[in-house]
Amino acid sequence: MKPVLFLTRRIPEPAIKMLEEKFTLKINPYNLALTHQEIIEGIEDAEALICLLTDNIDKEVISAAPKLKVISSYAVGYNNIDVEYATQLGIAVCNTPGVLTETTADLTWALILASCRRISESERFVRNGNFKGWEPMLMLGLDVYEKTLGIIGMGRIGQAVAKRATGFEMRIIYYNDSSLSQTLAFEAREVTLKTLLQEADIITLHLPLTKETFHLISKEEFALMKESAVLINTSRGAVIEEKELIKALKTKRIFAAGLDVYENEPDIPQELLALENVVLLPHIGSASIETRTKMALLAAENAIAVMEGKEPPAKVN
Ligand code: GLV
Ligand code: GLV
After folding, report:
1. Which atom of ligand 1 is nearest to 295's Cα?
2. Which of 151, 226, 234, 296 has the fewest C-beta atoms lying within 10 Å of its C-beta?
């Protein structure tokens, strides 16, 4: 009999086809995220799990699956998984790095341009019937070209964002908590976090959520930023202390923000929803047709490799 693989949500079909050859698939039949309890019940007889970044794969879930050998997440970020506990039990934890790098960098740029040039606010203005003709002072935003881009976290995605910035003739500064293993393919200056916050016109976050990065950007950090600063987050919401961000936007401590992620997804505070100087997206960094298929195939390859006793393409533990 084929081993059971539990999928907490349907993923693109090419991956399902590949998985069907090796596993008996147990797939969430609903087009809805499963509750914690439903995951605990569903995982019971599984030897492999493919999960989403919204699933809380904690000790309780992992303990509910005595035969589990692999947790393959359909995401690059894995802050939702108790990796330490899985490792203790000899369970492989895998993710989908690399395949979503360029797509996430593209979306980061969509947010940079939208935030600086007030695109969402302008569109609301048009759709609400407020456009009465060209005006000298209508929707004045900020230039992007030749500005200073501050990248916090110069990993794969940070570097892909930086590469695009060279086309805008930007000066690039970055802060990374460890030294980079490769030389950069573009000119960039490494600085302290403090210098970055003080000098950057556009600040963009590309780090994983860990104990160390939780609320990395809070009251003190906002106080260091320029009044014209624009803050972009396509990483994880809790890297920013959201209530301090709301204060900074409300009081015009900074010019604008562009967010794809939130501290308590899917809940977004009413106060944030009410602000004009923030662009809000529904966590779609990797959401292109091509990339979601590549992520699904990589998640499937990871699960299959572990079951066959081979080294999976992307293991985090
Ligand atoms: C998306 O946020 C991911 O981690 O893949
Ligand atoms: C994620 O892919 C990163 O390392 O930036």
Report:
1. 5
2. 226
pTM over 0.90: yes
Domain shared by 166 and 42, yes or no: no
CA 210 / ligand 1 centre spacing (Å): 14
For residue range 159-175, list pLDDT tens digits in order: 999 999 999 999 999 99
- Based on the fold, state whether residues 119 and 83 are members of the same structural domain: no
Q: Among the bound ligands, name the one nearest to the CA of residue 156.
A: 2
pLDDT recorded at residue 182:
85
Domain count, the chain: 2
Same domain, 262 and 181: yes
Please give the pLDDT value at position 270: 98
User: Is 316 a member of any domain?
Assistant: no
Same domain, 157 and 270: yes
Q: Is residue 239 part of a domain?
A: yes
Q: Is residue 314, in this structure, part of any structural domain at all?
A: no
Please check whether residues 168 and 154 belong to one and the same domain: yes
Instruction: Tell me, in angstroms, the distance from the centre of ligand 2 to residue 235's CA.
Output: 9
Same domain, 59 and 122: no
Residue 155, ligand 2, Cβ within 6 A: yes
pLDDT, tens digit, for every residue of 186-206?
999 999 999 999 999 999 999
25: number of Cβ within 10 Å: 16
Q: Does 206 lie in the same domain as 83? A: no
